[in-house]
Amino acid sequence: MKVPSCFHLFQQRILSVKTFFLLVQYVFCKFNLFLYVYSIDASNVLVIGTEMLAKPNDYGLIFLFREGSVVFWNVEDKTVKRTMQILEPHEIQPYEIALVHWENEEVNYRISDGHSKLHRGEILLNSNLEPDESILEKFAFSNALSLSVKLAIWEVSLDNFVESIQFIPEMLKAGKQVKLSRSEVMQKIGELFALRHRINLSSDLLMTPDFYWDRIHLEQLYDKTCQFLNINRRVKVINEKLQHCTELTDLMRNHLSEKHGLRLEWMIVILISIEVLFELARVIF
């Protein structure tokens, strides 16, 4: 039997550690939840078990990632929605609601014999694993799925940025003057570099997290899921778009610098001309 496992994003960056556990304490009372805590990466992910199951042949788990994503395994829809509602007041710099509901991943999984793996878009979990081992394997899958959703959000952010500067090449092609102030251009450059920083420096998109260095099997599950979700290819495409946008914003900045330099040169010429006129007037009169 296939068990649906829904992977949802909820807004950017979860909460402080203190708020995290206050929230969990409240959730426990509401949904009969039980808590798993691992010392490794405990500051970045919280694992919560629940008895509110979608199907009876596996236990329910919720993975809450600090960067702002939540992964549900075999949790009934009512509990999923209620959990998201409880988390909503604690969001920091939230995304648009429509974007949050649109950008999510949903993958089927089932319990089977043999090693856990991702096969033809379906997660197969080893039925002979101890609960702790099963949770770690689910974490590896969840980690990759969470990363994919986060990348999807950044892809939308970049698309919005590209749309906001799309008029510049068209105006340059038509020989028209681009009416952007220096502050507006600097704001665009700031938005672009902030996005580039989040993708390439503040995330695990370019390298495997340290958590998997001494866990080869979990690393294989994580890498296989990343390959299935085309994360490396998507990162390459998004960096190519970022490079193009950087070149365009550099062009605008250089253009404004040239205009500013030309304006200064004309001011100098005018001042020299005025000084010459005063000197001529003094000589003549």
Shape: elongated
- Give the overall average pLDDT: 77
Largest sheet: 8 strands, mixed
**What structural class is derived from the secondary structure elements?**
alpha+beta
What letter string, H or E per element, gives the SSE order?
A: EHEEEEHHEEEHHHHH
Structure notes:
The chain is of the alpha+beta class. The chain is built from eight helices and eight strands, in the order E-H-E-E-E-E-H-H-E-E-E-H-H-H-H-H. Strands 2-3-4-5-1-6-8-7 form an eight-stranded mixed sheet, sandwiched between helices. A hairpin with a 2-residue loop joins strand 7 (117-119) and strand 8 (122-126).
Quick description:
With 285 residues, the chain is α+β, with helices and mostly antiparallel strands. The chain has eight helices and eight strands, in the order E-H-E-E-E-E-H-H-E-E-E-H-H-H-H-H.
